[in-house]
Q: What sequence folds into this?
């Protein structure tokens, strides 16, 4: 029995280990690649590690290709669009869960149906809308289309509905306004859900590629992922620079993941199938 | 504060939850709204609180018509069955919340909250979260939160039903004590007649949205207005023997037994009635024999025995002295108190 | 007494905890965003798809009809895109699902180093696909890529993953599977955690072997989750598009051989001068219909398993 268990666990760890290496290897290769010299990166057989860790490639990416500028843009765009969309989400989720108005549930059902509409479809018109608003090549163009999320409103509304109505009635008897009730009772109670929503939304905003590619042609408004791509096509850049730049793009999200792994994982597993 | 309810009616679509309800609740009383579940007692409470709107009728607090007044302007405190404590706030924050809404200065808020916390004996737990408290403690916090704004009226919706049996007894005494110390007019909803009997000044008994009777608990018990009241109150329940009165005597429907009792004179002859006897009204006859009963079984209760007897084909329960021999017939005498005759169909009381 | 708090409607008084203006104010910011950037473009794109010979600058068109759809369906790039997209879905979904079932089952044991394994398997979910795509591009390099090096160790000749038309698709699928694994594993893992442990205890008491338990208990009980995951993944795989950018610098494959449906839409309104908005819109409507069907299937499965 004991040897059988030993064999079982050996197989288990070996399989999991192989899988883990397969999953994590691109990151390893990216980061070490960022430290390699142009000779080392083209070496065959490939070198697992660079001979020494020099930051020249990173310096080049941040200075010559304006990755420092892109980084700032990414931070500004992510924070603005996530805060705005969190705010609209909280207000709308409250309206759909506690306020009473005619047609509330019908409107909500129609919104849910809209979740089926692929972004890739409506992007054609949104692109024109941004041009007509004169926002092409501005950071605002990367923010305003994402200020309202039906999906997160749906998730938060469901959480709000699960908060007992007696709390609401109790607060009402004390003379609490809807606005006060939302910010003093509902939002604090929903904090774990909100943290998850903010995290998932931030990840999506940070990594967004398709939309920035459409509306930002100039370096002034570009964010990291599209900046990286532009760096590759415009500069015909070398692999060691690319790997250093890619590391700059990926690193903040990696750090976020290390700190908020549990929130992200449970958030995905709860929201994943409803999307 | 005195509360006057006049012809209060609440309809939910086709369903009438409260029907033409009249009542007067005197200042400083503790009143129980008692009735089986679904009888409209919680709806009554919510109409008093202002979270449900009356379909018709009037509610007066003292002389003021509050029927359609917003809840926060009524000055009521409401304790919910599930306590409705805010899970993210500490006990102190929970109690302060109503004052915070009223924009009471912070120092005063905390002082008043602490004072109330002392009254309900939770001053040690002020910094805990509700989830770290037992059910009884949560209940105390909920009462403190309702009392902190010095309400004119305290409403409690089935406040004890989420507690275990032992705590229920403790909290029942506590609610009584707190009410007597604060002298706040209190309305308490429950379906538990024992609870209602033990703590209230007045019981308002409801059934199907209609008031059955309202009186002091003992009066209600001793002098029920109808069969429903008589049957709803009392443990063990009142005994009912069904039959009719012929020639001044009560005959069961199948003529298996006869009861002789002066109350029979007050009943129209031939009418189908229920002869109702409180268990404690039964005793062994020395001289006056009301009826004969066959003793089937007894349970020791200490001082006396709970005895199961057959009167003809009907089974009744009563208390007999210890050591009464089973499996034989006895002459039974009924005491003056605790004997009623009701109409079998309408429940109307004849005697 | 505050008037208007109770509203008399149909002679039935009702408590109004909501002031008349409140729903309007709470919903306004949300509704503005949804209207301008989801509802308006939805109808606009559908309408555009039926406008014939539409010139965006002048806003003129010759009439409404199905001409754009005809153009799309006859376009060899669109046909190629459809074929590639379906091929991609049919290859990537089963492979990633099977691998994920195995990994999720293994992760569902009591094991050490869980934080490490979770990080390894779930990290790709939070990182930019463009950035990691560049790492894959480097790994797929014909001369000094690690993939060809490892194949060489196994005695296989180097493959021109990115620069040869015949290998392009395989490279895309490998990268696609890698990309899809984290999300799939998480969903299946939470499905596994919802299975009552009693079933396993009962089976062990009956002396069933590990493999037998896996095929007779785990897989059947996990089936609803597996189906749902596959449908959800199919929807996202059907929109395969941005994976192409890091690998081929924005081209659909080395020789325009890897058109996908979404790439086709993008190409029509952004890659051509002048852009063909009507054709792009018609292709987008077709995409919407396919996704609509997938979603109906998802809802149907959800309903069936809920009962």
A:
């Amino acid at each position: 029995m004991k040897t059988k268990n030993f064999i079982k666990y050996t197989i288990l760890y070996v399989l999991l280990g192989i899988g883990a290496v397969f999953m994590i290897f691109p990151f390893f290769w990216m980061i070490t690649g960022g430290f390699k010299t142009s000779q080392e990166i083209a070496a065959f057989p490939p070198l697992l590690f660079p001979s020494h860790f020099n930051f020249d490639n990173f310096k080049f990416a941040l200075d010559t290709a304006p990755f420092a500028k892109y980084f700032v843009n990414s931070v500004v765009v992510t924070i603005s669009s996530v805060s705005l969309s969190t705010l609209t989400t909280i207000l709308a989720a409250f309206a759909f869960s506690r306020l009473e108005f005619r047609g509330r549930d019908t409107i909500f059902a129609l919104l849910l149906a809209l979740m089926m509409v692929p972004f890739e479809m409506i992007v054609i018109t949104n692109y024109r809308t941004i041009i007509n608003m004169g926002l092409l090549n501005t950071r605002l163009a990367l923010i305003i289309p994402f200020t309202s999320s039906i999906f997160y409103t749906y998730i938060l509304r469901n959480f709000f509905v699960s908060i007992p109505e007696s709390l609401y009635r109790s607060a009402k008897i004390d003379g609490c306004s809807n606005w006060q009730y939302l910010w003093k009772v509902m939002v604090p109670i929903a904090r774990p859900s909100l943290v998850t929503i903010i995290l998932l939304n931030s990840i999506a905003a940070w990594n967004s590629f398709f939309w920035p590619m459409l509306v930002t042609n100039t370096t002034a408004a570009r964010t990291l992922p599209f900046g990286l791509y532009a760096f590759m096509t415009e500069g015909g850049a070398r692999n060691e620079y690319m790997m250093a730049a890619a590391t700059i793009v990926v690193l903040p999200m990696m750090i976020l993941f290390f700190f908020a792994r549990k929130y992200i994982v449970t958030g995905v597993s709860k929201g994943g199938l409803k999307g | 504060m005195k509360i006057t309810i006049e012809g209060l009616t609440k309809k939910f679509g086709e369903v009438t939850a409260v029907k033409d309800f009249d009542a007067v609740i005197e200042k400083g009383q503790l009143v129980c709204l008692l009735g089986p579940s679904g009888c409209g007692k919680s709806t009554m409470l919510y109409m008093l609180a202002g979270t449900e709107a009356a379909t018709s009728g009037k509610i007066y607090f003292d002389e003021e018509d509050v029927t359609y007044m917003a809840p926060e302007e009524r000055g009521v405190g409401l304790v919910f069955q599930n306590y409705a404590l805010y899970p993210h706030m500490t006990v102190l924050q929970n109690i302060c919340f109503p004052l915070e809404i009223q924009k009471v200065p912070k120092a005063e808020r905390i002082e008043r909250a602490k004072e109330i916390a002392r009254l309900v004996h939770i001053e040690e737990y002020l910094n805990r979260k509700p989830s770290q408290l037992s059910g009884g403690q949560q209940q105390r916090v909920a009462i403190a939160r309702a009392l902190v704004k010095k309400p004119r009226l305290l409403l409690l919706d089935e406040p004890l039903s989420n507690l275990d049996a032992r705590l229920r007894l403790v909290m029942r005494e506590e609610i009584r004590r707190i009410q007597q110390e604060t002298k706040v007019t209190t309305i308490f909803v429950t379906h538990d007649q024992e609870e209602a009997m033990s703590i209230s000044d007045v019981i308002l008994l409801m059934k199907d949205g209609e008031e059955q009777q309202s009186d002091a608990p003992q009066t209600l018990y001793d002098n029920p207005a109808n069969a429903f009241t008589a049957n709803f109150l009392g443990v063990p329940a009142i005994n009912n023997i069904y039959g009719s009165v012929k020639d001044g005597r009560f005959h069961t429907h199948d003529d298996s037994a006869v009861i002789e009792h002066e109350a029979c004179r007050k009943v129209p002859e031939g009418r189908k009635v229920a002869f109702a006897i409180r268990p404690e009204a039964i005793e062994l006859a020395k001289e006056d024999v009301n009826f004969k009963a066959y003793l089937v079984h007894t349970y020791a209760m200490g001082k006396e025995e709970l005895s199961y007897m057959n009167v003809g084909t009907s089974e009744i329960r009563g208390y007999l002295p210890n050591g009464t021999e089973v499996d034989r017939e006895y002459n039974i005498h009924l005491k003056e108190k605790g004997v009623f005759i009701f109409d079998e169909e309408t429940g109307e009381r004849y005697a | 007494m505050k008037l208007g708090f109770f509203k008399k409607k149909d002679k039935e008084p009702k408590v109004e905890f909501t002031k008349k203006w409140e729903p309007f104010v709470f919903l306004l910011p949300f509704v503005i965003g949804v209207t301008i950037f989801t509802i308006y473009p939805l109808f606009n794109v559908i309408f555009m798809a039926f406008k014939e010979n539409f010139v965006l600058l002048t806003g003129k068109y010759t009439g409404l009809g199905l001409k754009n759809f005809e153009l799309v369906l006859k376009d060899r790039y669109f046909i190629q895109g459809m074929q590639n997209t379906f091929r991609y879905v049919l290859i990537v979904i089963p492979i990633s699902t099977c691998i994920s079932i195995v990994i999720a089952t293994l992760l569902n044991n009591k094991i050490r180093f869980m934080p490490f394994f979770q990080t390894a398997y779930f990290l790709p979910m939070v990182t930019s696909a463009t950035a990691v795509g560049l790492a894959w591009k480097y790994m797929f390099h014909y001369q000094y890529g690690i993939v060809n090096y490892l194949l060489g160790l196994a005695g296989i000749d180097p493959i021109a993953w990115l620069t040869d038309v015949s290998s392009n698709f395989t490279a895309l699928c490998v990268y696609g599977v890698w990309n899809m694994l984290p999300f799939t594993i998480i969903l299946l893992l939470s499905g596994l955690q919802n299975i009552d442990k009693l079933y396993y205890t009962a089976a062990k008491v009956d002396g069933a072997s590990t493999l037998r338990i896996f095929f007779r208990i785990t897989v059947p009980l996990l089936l609803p989750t597996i189906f749902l995951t596959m449908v959800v993944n199919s929807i996202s795989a059907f929109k395969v598009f941005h994976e192409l950018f890091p690998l081929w610098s924005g081209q659909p494959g080395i020789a325009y051989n890897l058109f996908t449906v979404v790439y086709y839409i993008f190409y029509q309104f952004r890659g051509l001068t002048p852009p063909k908005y009507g054709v792009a819109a018609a292709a987008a409507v077709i995409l919407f219909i396919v996704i609509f069907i997938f979603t109906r299937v998802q809802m149907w499965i959800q309903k069936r398993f809920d009962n």
User: Anything to note?
Assistant: Chain A has a mean pLDDT of 91. Chain A touches chain B at residues 164, 166-167, 169-176, 180, 184-185, 188-189, 191 (CB under 8 Å). Residues 2-35 of chain A form the longest helix (34 residues).
